[in-house]
Amino acid sequence: MAAFSDRKTLITGIFVVVGIIFLLRLFQLQVADSTYKRFADNNALRKVVQYPARGLIYDRNHELLVYNKAAYDLLVIPRETGRFDTLAFAAMLDVPADLFTAELKKASAYSRYKPSVIVKQISHEKYASIQEQLYKMKGFYIQSRTLREYPRRIAAHALGYVGEVTQAMIDSNAYYQSGDYIGISGIEAAYEEELRGEKGVKYYMVDVHNRIQGSYLEGEMDTIARIGRNLTTTIDYRLQEYAEKLMQNKRGSVVAIEPSTGEVLALVNAPSYDPNLLVGRARGRNYSLLLSDPVKPLFNRALMAQYPPGSTFKMAQALVALEEGAITPQTRFHCAGGYSSGSFRVACHHNQSFEVVESIARSCNAYYVYAFRAILENPRYASIREAYDAWREYMLKFGFGRTLGSDLKNELKGMVPTSDYYQRYVFGTARWRALPIISLSIGQGELGITPFQLANYCAMLANRGYYYIPHIVREIEGREIPEKFRVRQESGISRSYFEPVIEGMEQVMTAGTGARSAIPGIAVCGKTGTAQNPHGADHSVFMAFAPRENPRIAVSVYVENGIWGATYAAPISSLVIEKYLNDTISSQRLWLEESMLKANLMNPSVIPVNDGDEE
Amino acid sequence: MATRNKLWANIDWITFFVFLLLALLGWINIYAAVYDDSHKSILDISQRYGKQMLWILAALVIGFAILIIESNFYVFFAWAFYGLTIFLLILVLFVGVEINGSKSWFIIGDFQIQPSEFAKFSTSLAVAKLMSGYNFRFGSPAGLLRVGVVILLPALLILLQPDTGSAIVFASFLLVLYREGLSGVVLFFAALTVVLFLLSLLVPNYLLLVILFLGALAAHYILNQRFRMVYMALGITSGMVLLVALADRITGAGLDPEVIVLGGMIPALAWFLFWISRHRIKRTMVIILVFVSSVAFTYSVDFVFNEILEKHHRDRINELLGIQSDPLGAGYNVNQSKIAIGSGGFLGKGFLRGTQTKYNFVPEQSTDFIFCTVGEEWGFAGSAVVIFLFIFLFIRLIILAERQRSAFSRIYGYSVAIILFFHFMVNIGMTIGLMPVIGIPLPFFSYGGSSLWAFTVLLFIFLRLDASRLDKLV
């Protein structure tokens, strides 16, 4: 085939010719013709993220609780900066020069191509004054942001706060980028997706002098920022404000729920803090101050503190005993100053026998020991353990020992021990008996109930057997709230058994332990309690709903180290109820309001001595 | 052991180092093209550049494996490779995974492979095997038919995927066949077809008729050296056309210029045919036949273009020819690519300093448009180096092919050189706006394991054949 070997010349020739054509063309494109360089200059893209304003938050009567104020971040793209006078620039920005150069270095180390924020949250006034100078600074850009502002300084825990995303959040959610803000607790966190809106991106063509030449591809690649949705919460700001005032200088919480809807009217933690502290440049410093404060102002007691419920638990026991047929409304148990069995003794202070109604009104411990024994030793069940499991099911239905599924973050489960727990830690291989766990009947022992759960339980009693999952947002602009908040959660107790229990609760207020907190003209049904505290003075507990018919509010109040429910928790509850229902406190109760406002339980040395003997 | 030692001494290390250099340059430019600040290490295997490094290393292992196998292996198993490839190309139509609208990929676990990439080397082996056979003659229609089937079968199967770009690569074999004795006329007609295709899209038909006619006259003069007939033909035909034009003007019919030209030409042509049949001038006969079929082809182009090609093909061709200009639509890629390359200037913007190939202005930056990064960051100087390296490699491969004693090795060597060249021509031509957008990779440069390995296999089999060029090959 050597015959055709001259053809290699043509083939090689084609190679060379194509190579030469390419070189000529490249020369034309790259050297001779400057059009493409101009194109490229105009082609330099600046990507500007459009941060939408976060949604506003209103109270149930459309009073503004949270809004936005403008702030400006200064960004730098280190690769684009030219030479400039660092000192003068820092002075203009009102930033210490050394800090400014340190930030610049950090930005370069992070990335020479990507923008980094070097001065955060420049105020609107400052921005206006430096705006004129900024365009001269190559590589520096301003990005407008919004900061939260809380005009009423209330409901810090419920509203939550906004902070910068952490690296872990960026890694787990592609939406967020370094420097973005995100709701970290409370409503801000729970409704982050609704509140934040959607970031937009605008692509601008900029020339070599970094001046914007217009939008890129006529904005075809831009995405429009969608501002956050406004939320209407279920909070009644006047009630919230009032309850916070009553709780000043105390530790504890107030939770108020509208029974007919499950809407949270007030969610008070004490001590609290001004939510404006956790905004802007001062956030980091204030946060660590709050975090190290020994009275734990950041602690969301309403959702996370777990106390034994004390005597407030008695209604639940009465209801289960009635439903299970362990007692009837007419069953009487005799209290001989308590209950004794061998060396076992539960103290009480009566010497008479009670039916259900009086047992609640008089808060008889002995009655409930008998009733609980009747539940556990119910012949319907093969064993005490089985009866206990059935009982525990009721407790879960009442919302104890589990999270309620509300829209508030950080809800804790509390504790209602499983039978396995008792098997392992109490009975071991021994036979189940009622006595070792009998203190559950009066809300003591291995029980942990949060104030939130207690308020929900109170709403369930108010509704005579069902509740709606408590929630704090009633309206999301342009969207429905989740369907689950409209579904009745049943307690599994027949409606008829509620009447004696509620009658007992009303008598608490008319003739029982809560009488001092009765509100003239309003039929309040309540129950006092004392939560045992192994670390110090017991806690004052009270729950109540009102009015008795068609209740509009159910409240739980814990006052730590307040000892008796009647001393602090009951008056505070009654004032909250009166404020909500009547809008004002009647003149004959102003003394009570006054004494509650004055009460200071923050100093351990003035904690009242345990001198009462009721409950 | 003696042959082993001889093997390493006989390998053409020049080719090997050019190959390695191109692969490394490709890797660096992939790094620049997809550079991501948060993954700065070029070895970060979560990124394309890290993966490309692994693939280059794997390619070296593959290359080594190919070199240590006896060269006769490739000769003996040429048909087996080909058969396997055909099987895979059929299989991929049924069990392949569709990516970007083509069923071209097998996906096994994390591993993706494109059989069409490997069809290039196996078809080269098969063509070399077939044409180096003792009883093979180009002269016989049977011989041509057999080669045609061997080349077109994989091309058609790839067209079914459909992956037009990879299928067009098989046109490279035309040049291989030419080297082995295929008549230059075929090459001429192939070139004529392409030119006519482009002209028929660019100029109005009547003008094309005139051009063809003048071309035919020129061909006639070159072949016969007789002016008298050229004058005669020119005079008669233009007279006829003028007559028709005059009639058109007088009657005021307002005929299309195309009809006028055809109306004059057809009677003139009839007269020529009659005249030639009496004088039996064979060459003139051929010219007239070529002329007539060219005219017929011109008219069929419109049909092919509008009815057979798909819209994105039409758009790409129209963009290339400047018939339509839609820099934000069909022309977007090429326009951005030209801006990126053009903005590089003489010396380029410098490594990692490109702005156009960042920010995703240019699509497919690391694969089909990798040359943009070269153009932008290394400028004319860098682009020229890359062009020189490629042309050097191709010429080197031709020199190697010509020094083979066995026809098999020579044919295979030509196939390698021309297939690589075809990719080079189409890919770079596309980025600088001289070729329509056809998505085929730049050999050794573009990101992607399948194509890198396929090109490595293609090249290294030839290096192995070349290393044993002094042995007697079957």
Q: CATH-wise, what's the superfamily of the domain at 46-231 in chain A?
A: Penicillin-binding protein 2a (Domain 2)
What is the total tally of β strands of chain B? 3
Low-confidence stretches of chain B: none
Report the biggest beta sheet of chain B as strand number plus sense, adding barrel if it closes. Answer: 3 strands, antiparallel
Separation of termini of chain B?
A: 22 Å
- Main sheet properties of chain A: 6 strands, mixed
DSSP strand (E) fraction of chain B? under 5%
Mean pLDDT over all positions of chain A? 87
What integer value in Å does the Rg of chain A equal?
Answer: 34 Å
How much of the residues of chain A is beta strand, in percent?
Answer: 15-25%
Q: Count of DSSP helices of chain A?
A: 21
Protein architecture, described:
The complex is a heterodimer of chains A (615) and B (474). Chain A is of the alpha+beta class. Chain A has a domain at 46-231: Penicillin-binding protein 2a (Domain 2) (Alpha-Beta Complex). Chain A is 34% helix and 20% strand. Chain A contains 21 helices and 20 strands. In chain A, strands 2, 3, 4, 5, 10 and 16 form a six-stranded mixed β-sheet that branches. Chain A has a five-stranded antiparallel β-sheet with strand order 12-11-20-19-18, with helices on both faces. In chain A, helix 10 (237-246) packs antiparallel against helix 20 (569-582) and helix 13 (314-323) packs parallel to helix 15. The longest helix of chain A is centred in the first third of the chain and has 26 residues, at 7-32. Chain A is elongated, with a radius of gyration of 34 Å. Chain B is an all-alpha fold. Chain B folds into three domains: 14-56 and 327-453, no CATH class; 70-180, no CATH class; 193-308, no CATH class. In chain B, strand 1 and strand 2 (102-108) form a beta hairpin. In chain B, helix 11 (205-224) packs antiparallel against helix 14 (282-308). The interface between A and B is large, with 41 and 50 residues.
